[in-house]
Amino acid sequence: MTNDVVKSDRILKQITQGSFTEKVVEVDEETISLLIVQLGEHLFALLGAEAREIMPFSESTWIPGATPVLPGVMNVRGDVAAVIDAKQVLMMPEAGSGAGSFFVLLRHGDGRSGILVDNIVDVAEVSVNENKPPLPSLDVGWQRFAVSQFEYRGRIVTLLKVEELIAAVRG
Predict the structure, then answer these.
(1) Could you tell me if 113 and 144 are in contact, meaning their C-beta atoms sit under 8 angstroms apart?
(2) Three-class secondary structure of residue 107 per DSSP
(3) Alpha helices of the chain — where are they, by DSSP H?
(4) Which of 124, 117, 98 is nearest to 55 (CA)?
(5) Are the beta carbons of 34 and 159 closer than 8 angstroms?
(6) pLDDT values of the chain reduced to their tens digit, one per residue, 171 residues
(7) DSSP code per residue over 34-71
């Protein structure tokens, strides 16, 4: 009986001293910062470093002879920025259903173009290891633009190549 008391006292002492607390192991894992956006019912991501600015989209100025992919230009504090309709580029069924809610000015090339998106979902740090090659079932129209895919809150997100989006407009 004294053995049992001693054992329980020793266990209680270890608990009070924190000997049984969970040990957290920190692992330095390489991450990338991503801007997660919504287009229609789908989630896409851009590298955080490629998004220069996010602003509410109000209107663009139509350019004669422009294609639906490039519905116009927008004045961004005195600079003219090309407005790219990402839904048109990705040949989404919702394309042409109206302008996006946000304009993401891109930091690529001359930095004077941006894409329309329906919603800004999050800015997230994602582990490089979580990024997987695009699934073979990925929409054929999106394959050219996809870098990788990852899971975010139970949904698949496709990381897009910004330079390919811009190249699609230039033809």
Answers:
(1) no
(2) coil
(3) 2-16, 86-89, 140-143, 162-170
(4) 117
(5) yes
(6) 555 556 666 666 666 665 555 555 566 789 999 999 999 999 999 999 999 999 999 888 988 988 888 889 998 888 899 999 999 999 887 655 455 689 999 987 676 899 999 999 999 999 999 999 998 988 888 999 999 999 999 999 999 999 999 888 876
(7) EEEEEETTEEEEEEGGGEEEEEE----B--TT--TTS-
